[in-house]
Amino acid sequence: MSQPLGLRLYALVMRVLAPLAPVWLQRRAAKGKEEPARLPERFGHSTRERPAGGLVWLHGASVGESLMLLQIVRRLGEEREDLSFLITTGTATSAALVEKRKGARTQHQYIPLDAPAHAERFLDHWRPDLAVFAESEIWPNLIQEAAGRGIPLALANARMNAATLDRWARRAPRTAERLFNCFRWIGAADEVTAAGLSGLTGRHIDCAGNLKLDAEAPPVDLDALTAVQAMTAGRPAWLAASTHEGEEEIALAAHARLLDEHKDALLILAPRHPERRDAVIRAIRESGLSHAVRSRGEEPSAATAVYLADTLGELGLFFRAAPVSLIAGSLAEGIGGHNPVEAAQCGSALIAGPHAASFADLYAQLDAAGGVARVRDAGELALAVSTLLSDDGARRSRVEAASSVVEAARGAMDRTLDALRPLLPARGRAA
Fold first, then answer.
1. What is the model's pTM?
2. Given this structure, which CATH class describes domain 222-408?
3. What is the pLDDT of residues 265-275, one digit of tens each?
4. How far is CA 233 from each of CA 225, 236, 296, rounded to the nearest angstrom?
């Protein structure tokens, strides 16, 4: 069967653009978005040896997907001591997180750019026995090259909105059919994705549920938690978690209003990407609020208004230390919101903005149960934080409602593992 025109054109474009990639990557490295020493990985090169035996390759875009994939690795690793794992990601932040939390049988590499030569080089080296892609990470050349080599592929936690699915159906139905049918199993995170991909592939697609709702409570160092709790002791503290550009300004404006009522309130500000610290510090200074920066070893004094938590992998500390948390990515359009599950698990009352399409099903349940306060701007955010900090009963009610919703939504991980097990290599496979 001939390859659809869309896939042939895509491969041609990627070949033409490949010579420009080094300049593009160097510019990204200059902005802190790439690790200069690891740029060869973006071309499919690796300095790490492929381990002997069965190898499962898992790929996710960024931090949220990395945490999800680490759970899959942990569960499969407990069942199969003969397996090794490779996790690929596309951002420096997610790379640092995987390096920090991965086990002894897991390696990390940056995903190669999706030019045919890079895909071939990557697969020649790693020779995975199973490839698991996460959510909407569709890399046509890598996927087709892996499928052509007989490598089983799975798409876990597949998530696409109705508009994206409609574009596939209207503009490139043959391309979509060929590409998505490279996956031997697809587990949709929601019914919209399951129905859309069923139509595109011509086969039934399971709605396995959202894996991110099965997230475990983030790990925490007890000594570090004690230290953070001591910093916030006796103060009305709240957390703005995983903020993006434009959201820090809203949180800072809200905090300035909050200080009119709660003179000793402390905002713990945790940007999604710690490498943005300089820009965030400028925003804090422009707001006129005093601050301390965690990465510099500074601790907030009684007079400090903002504690910049610009470190990686420590949200578990701050969700536990702050009785109220804004789940950011939801105040600015085009991001889709971030996962509220970890905050709920840690007992922090949830606040979110109106733009949380990435977790629309969960937020609909939280809204219905009274498990989240929704806000649109700095004024509403200040009021919600003030209410929850002042009213212990209201705060406990939010926390209990959110916990019940999150617990009821779990189960996707077990369904996903049940589907992946038949695709794993036989025990004792030689490399």
1. 0.80
2. alpha beta
3. 999 999 998 98
4. 12, 8, 21
